[in-house]
Design a protein that fits this description.
It is a single chain. The chain has six helices and 21 strands. It is α+β, with helices and mostly antiparallel strands. It has two domains: 188 residues, C8orf32 fold (Roll); 108 residues, Immunoglobulin-like (Sandwich). A hairpin with a 2-residue loop joins β19 and β20. α4 packs across α5. The longest helix is centred in the middle third of the chain and has 15 residues. It is globular, with a radius of gyration of 20 Å.
Length: 334
């Protein structure tokens, strides 16, 4: 079975996803009406088996404050020594931990409160548009993708109108897959017509940059839709719940948010997700092809979850370690 057949099969297994409204604090909530959500969050990395003698290094993402996300009451608990680091360009923040061997169990726990707002188009003078005209290793343009983008855009010059054409075309072309971890390769997404959030965004971003429109890649962890959040919940912070979305620069210098995946999964909010990003997520980083601090041995595609290496070799998620998130819903603003 090739990758396309596997992905297509996974689509059938998961089925169409269209979530109905359910009570939050006893009140039905429309996802498109949510202005913000406040949560208490606990993120922990747990080793499933001991690592003896070898040098073990952990890079744990720390969510950042920005116009749409406010982190407070941040706490770290770990038997290991740790040190915080940040990227000079603001792409990420992290905790770095290092140990000679490591026991099975939980070496690090992060606790914090988060208020997350629904994203909309806004000015952001901290961003240099030139920094977001570069494609990563996984976002390549070929003749077919270029022709696809050029035919859609035609003679249109307005970035918003071009983006809307690309948004609809990518959503209509690609079947959504949830229970599969993919790499977000634009050419592969175009040819195989199936994938998940990184695949949608890789193709969209490749097409936008091909047309000279600066486009930012944002990465984090998806939480349940606010409409179906329980008072408390738990999820695995793995590649399945890793999530991406994008922003592009408009003619009036606003950064315009787009959530292609929810536009696909939720036909009822497809129009809304062109220009809005719902708040059911934790933003961890910006960009792709990331070099952490201190540098890891392998190139990171994206950085939304703990990265672990032993003697410079990446450990296997689900075999050596796992990440979990517990949340408590505090407030929903509509």
């Amino acid at each position: 079975m090739n990758r396309r057949e596997f992905v297509k099969g996974a689509v059938g297994a998961v089925g169409a996803v269209l979530l109905s409204k359910v009570p939050v604090f006893g009140k039905a909530v429309e996802d498109a009406a949510v202005k913000s959500v406040s949560l208490k969050l606990t993120y922990r990395t747990e080793f499933l088996k001991p690592i003896k003698k070898e040098k073990v290094c952990l890079w744990v993402p720390i969510p950042q404050n920005d116009s749409w996300q406010r982190i407070t009451d941040f706490e770290v608990s770990s038997p290991l020594k740790y040190k915080p680091y940040g990227d000079d360009a603001g792409a990420f923040k992290l905790l770095y931990l290092e140990s000679k061997g490591i026991k099975a169990g939980v070496p690090v726990t992060l606790k914090y409160n988060m208020k997350r707002l629904t994203e909309s188009a806004a000015l952001d003078n901290s961003k240099n548009p030139k920094d977001f005209l570069k494609l990563s290793e996984w976002e390549k343009i070929n003749d077919k993708v270029a022709a696809f983008a050029d035919n859609l855009a035609g003679n249109e010059k307005d970035p918003v109108k071009i983006a809307r054409k690309f948004y609809d075309a990518v959503i209509d072309r690609i079947e959504y897959v949830h229970e599969a971890c993919t790499r977000g390769v634009s050419v592969m997404a175009f040819e195989e017509k199936a994938g998940r959030s990184d695949d949608y965004n890789a193709l969209f971003r490749t097409m936008m940059i091909h047309k000279g429109i600066p486009t930012v890649w944002e990465q984090g962890i998806a939480l349940p839709y606010v409409s179906e959040m329980k008072k408390t919940g738990r999820l695995e912070a793995d590649c399945i719940n890793s999530y991406s979305w994008v922003r592009f620069l408009t003619a009036d210098n606003k950064w315009f948010p787009v959530d292609l995946t929810y536009g696909k999964r939720r036909p009822d909010i497809r129009d809304y997700c062109f220009g809005h990003v719902p708040p059911n997520r934790i933003r961890m980083s910006i960009g792709r092809e990331i070099t952490l601090t201190p540098p890891q041995k392998e190139i990171l595609n994206t950085f939304s979850n703990t990265h672990v290496e032993s003697n410079g070799i990446p450990l296997i998620y689900g075999h050596h370690y796992k990440n979990m998130i517990d949340y408590e819903l505090v407030a929903v603003e509509t």
